[in-house]
Design goal:
heterodimer, A: 334 residues, alpha/beta, Rossmann fold, two-stranded antiparallel ribbon, B: 331 residues, 7-stranded mixed sheet, 5-stranded mixed sheet, 35% helix
């Protein structure tokens, strides 16, 4: 691998390429699923994260393959960043047999231990204590594996979050709490649900490092996450990272997002990482043709995965009562 | 096989000791577990001294974090035994059990699993009132993916707890604080297991089957003695495991006696007895001499101290229900 320093941003060309590839794949996945739902090609539920691509890209670059991830229902970008195959992601979103969970999990419950994705949760905040447990296991095993849990700003108002971060700080566990603060908790703006300006300030209360970073800047976000991951790996305990970003779509596919003021939307478009990062890349020596090729390859990969999934068989109904218990136990009233 | 006489508290302590000693994947976590405090229920006494505080871990008062940490660690191959000190506090951690522990295997298509054991105690009978006395097993019987175990004797407690710890699925293991001091014979030595999902006939009889478990078992056995004095021979079935239910044993007994009473400390309304009674009625309707009777707690919060006994199950309730199933004339 050749790594050339690219001056202004200080990352190697390969790292910058990886960041942009992940962002393009995540954006293409989101857009393809939304379009497919809108035009009636398939029916499913998704929680879009268009606009937040820089954070998972940075996360993916900062983590090792054996590091663990717990994410949320708005986590498809995180899955991409951690290396879950597109067919498994889309297969699960569309509930087919090729999905990560044989179609039994759905968008909100994708897991892929082979790539370190241990859990995706649809319950806001509840991934935090589970990540703490994964980190506890790593500490007990004595290795240097790190667990990252991602969540939105809304999750930081739950009891699970506060219980989890306190336990992690007390036990100095190798975990990074990554808040993707997109300024809306479902449909409610952040200022209506918190008296503090920065989610990262919540770290002070439990004796942990807290950092706020511009989550629309993948390079800055990478640096902050990497520092937190390195601290955790070295036994320095947990960090709360708040990456501030924006969600350009509604809470779920089909939500018109009327609650987002037009002025805010217009202002935030200027910080859309899918617009601003290519400018950075061009300044760093990439050509427009190179960037177009990366984007086209991402879109093509997503399209091919969608085609594979749509051609796959529906879940086998004989499977429906399997995996409830380990020994194949089926509990009935018959 | 030689036997020892142990209390349920000692039997559970022995099971935890055996699990910690024989398998490095096992660790305990919960509030106040470590010595010298060793918990409100004193079940974990001596274990932190023997195995260290990285195997017997004191936690903050954070039930969601305790169970979340157990879930996460179990996904990495550990066999955590988490204690929720008193069952009423489990509501705080319900999300971790019901939405995660119970469903991880299913929602991952078998890729992940969650072999945790959640030990908790039912504090009924201590006069602690509405938030420290509930018997909430029915909440969990409604959730696919977990197992619910509630022993009534020291031998069952030891053997079932070891089965629970090494079971590949999440298990809710209930302990009645009023039974902790109950003594009974327990086989000596390691490796002795009582299988999950198998009921036990604790007393043989021909006239009526009393189906019970946990705290209510001793009342059911007392009731059987009182009934025997009147010439009514009750068979007493200890369910031991509530999810899955061993209906085979229950139905075999009721098919013989043709009469059934289900007795438990939980509320009668929508209690575990409703499921048992419904299954008996559906399968043995034509065999039954009388309708199945259910007895349990009244549908009120548990009042404190003086009035507690007025709403909770009594031995007299079981005796009366059994007599009711006898009808006017025995045929």
């Amino acid at each position: 691998m050749t790594v050339t320093d690219t001056g202004a941003v200080g990352l190697g060309r390969d790292q910058l390429t990886t960041l942009y590839e992940t962002m393009c794949t995540a954006a293409a996945l989101d857009t393809r699923l939304l379009n497919g739902i809108k035009r009636g090609e398939f029916a499913t539920v998704t929680w879009p994260s268009r606009g937040q691509e820089a954070i998972p890209a940075a996360l993916g670059l900062a983590l090792r393959p054996d590091d663990r991830l717990v994410t949320t229902y708005r986590g498809l970008h995180d899955h991409v960043a951690k290396g879950v195959p597109l067919t498994e992601i889309i297969g699960e979103v569309l509930g087919t047999s090729v999905g990560a969970s044989k179609g039994k999990g759905g968008t909100m419950h994708i897991s892929d231990p082979a790539h370190g994705v241990m859990m995706t949760t649809g319950i806001v905040g509840s991934g935090v204590p589970v990540a703490v447990g994964l980190a506890l296991a790593a500490q007990k095993q004595g290795g240097d594996r790190v667990t990252v849990v991602t969540f939105g700003d809304g999750a930081t108002n739950t009891g699970s979050f506060h219980e989890g971060v306190n336990l992690a700080a007390t036990w100095k566990l190798p975990v990074v709490f990554l808040c993707q603060n997109n300024l809306y908790a479902e449909m409610t703006p952040v200022e209506e649900t918190m008296a503090i300006q920065h989610v990262a300030d919540r770290a002070i209360g439990v004796g942990m490092v807290g950092v706020t970073v511009d989550g629309n800047d993948p390079v800055a976000t990478y640096r902050v996450i990497k520092e937190a991951v390195d601290r955790a790996r070295a036994g320095g305990g947990p960090t709360l990272v708040e990456a501030v970003t924006f969600r350009f779509e509604g809470h779920y596919a089909g939500d018109s997002a009327k609650y987002i003021p037009a002025e805010q939307l217009a202002e935030m478009r200027e910080y859309d990482p899918m617009v601003t990062f290519p400018v950075t890349l061009l300044d760093s020596g990439f050509t427009r043709a190179e960037l177009d090729a990366i984007k086209a390859a991402a879109e093509q990969a997503v399209e091919e995965a969608v085609r594979t999934v749509l051609a796959a068989p529906a879940p086998d109904l004989a499977e429906i009562q399997l995996d409830v218990y380990a020994d194949g136990l089926v509990v009935t009233h018959d | 096989m030689t036997e020892q006489k142990l209390s349920i508290r000692e039997a559970i302590n022995q099971a935890l000791d055996e699990a910690l000693r024989t398998d490095p994947r096992v660790f305990l976590l919960g509030e106040d577990l470590a010595d010298p405090a060793a918990g409100v229920n004193a079940v974990t006494r001596g274990l932190a001294t023997a195995y260290g505080t990285d195997r017997v871990m004191n936690t903050p008062i954070s039930e969601a974090a305790i169970l979340g940490a157990a879930v996460g660690a179990s996904m990495e191959g550990y066999l955590p035994v988490a204690e929720i000190m008193i069952m009423d506090f489990i509501g705080i951690a319900m999300d971790q059990i019901v939405n995660h522990a119970a469903k991880l295997r299913y929602m991952s298509g078998g890729r992940t699993t969650c072999p945790i054991t959640v030990r908790t105690s039912v504090f009924a009978g201590t006069g602690s009132g509405g938030t420290h006395s509930q018997s909430l097993e029915a909440w969990f019987m409604h959730v696919p993916g977990i197992k619910v175990v509630y022993p009534s004797t020291p031998a069952d407690a030891k053997g079932l707890l070891l089965s629970s710890i090494f079971d590949p699925d999440p298990v809710l293991f209930m302990e009645a604080s009023r039974l902790y001091a109950l003594k009974g014979p327990v086989p000596e030595g390691d490796g002795i297991r009582i299988p999950i999902g198998k009921a036990d006939v604790k007393r043989a009889g021909r006239d009526v089957t009393i189906i019970s478990y946990g705290l209510a078992m001793s009342q059911s056995l007392e009731a059987a003695k009182i009934l025997a004095a009147d010439g009514i021979e009750a068979e007493v079935v200890d369910l031991r495991t509530l999810l899955p239910l061993d209906m085979e044993t229950v139905l075999a007994s009721v098919a013989k006696t043709r009469r059934a009473v289900v007795a438990h400390s939980a509320t009668t309304v929508a209690g575990p007895g409703a499921e048992v009674a419904a299954q008996i009625s559906a399968k043995l309707f034509h065999e039954l001499a009388e309708p199945v009777q259910r007895v349990g707690a009244k549908f009120t919060p548990i009042p404190s101290r003086a009035s507690e006994a007025a709403v909770t199950l009594s031995t007299g309730d079981i005796v009366a229900a059994a007599r009711k199933t006898m009808g006017a004339v025995r045929v």
